[in-house]
Amino acid sequence: MKNFVILIAILFLFNIVLNTDPPLIFDVDTEILDETKTVYPGNSVIVNANVRSLGLGSRELIDINLIFKVLDQNNRVILKQESTVALQTSLSISEIIYIPNDMKPGMYYVYVEANYKGYRGYSSEAFYVKRKSIFNIGKLFNF
Q1: What separation in angstroms does the CA of 29 have from each of 57, 76, 115?
Q2: pLDDT value at residue 26
Q3: Domain that holds residue 58
Q4: 53 lies in a domain?
Q5: How far apart are the C-alpha atoms of 112 and 88, rounded to whole Å?
Q6: Is 35 contained in some domain?
Q7: Residue 43 pLDDT exceeds 50
Q8: Are 49 and 30 in contact (CB under 8 A)?
């Protein structure tokens, strides 16, 4: 019985170790350019991401996976773009995210995640999609 209790305790601790999230090892700053914080469907949002390594124990060049997601207010993924980039200590990258013509008006979030062998870091920033007008006032007055 004593061995059984010890076995259960070991399995419990092993389960805790396996189910923990990987440590955050990157500092990620996300900034949406002011002129694209409010857009219409069919336009684009320009996102600047700054990623800094917080110490993987090496100054070697590594390939990290950068994931850009657009989330709605319920955290549902609307869009997702991924790329692989080289990182030594820090990098800055701009990404253009095209907003679909059928995207509904409302508040959305750009979520940026840097990932390398399970080590990660992330940040997000909000933007707003406005309703497209029914008619073009410029065409109405010929300008």
Answers
A1: 21, 21, 14
A2: 85
A3: 22-132
A4: yes
A5: 18
A6: yes
A7: yes
A8: yes
**What is the tally of structural domains in the chain?**
1
CATH number of domain containing 77 = 2.60.40.150
Instruction: With a cut of 50, say whether residue 94 has pLDDT above it.
Output: yes
Give the predicted TM-score (pTM) of the model.
0.73
More confident residue, 89 or 60: 89
30: left (phi over 0), alpha (psi -120 to 50) or beta: beta
Distance CA 69, CA 108 (A): 10
Task: Please name which of 48, 52, 116 lies closest in space to residue 89, comparing C-alpha atoms.
Answer: 52
- Under a CB-based contact definition with an 8 Å cutoff, are residues 93 and 62 in contact? no
The rounded distance, in Å, linking the Cα atoms of 112 and 117 is 17
On whether the CB atoms of residues 67 and 93 are closer than 8 A, the answer is: no
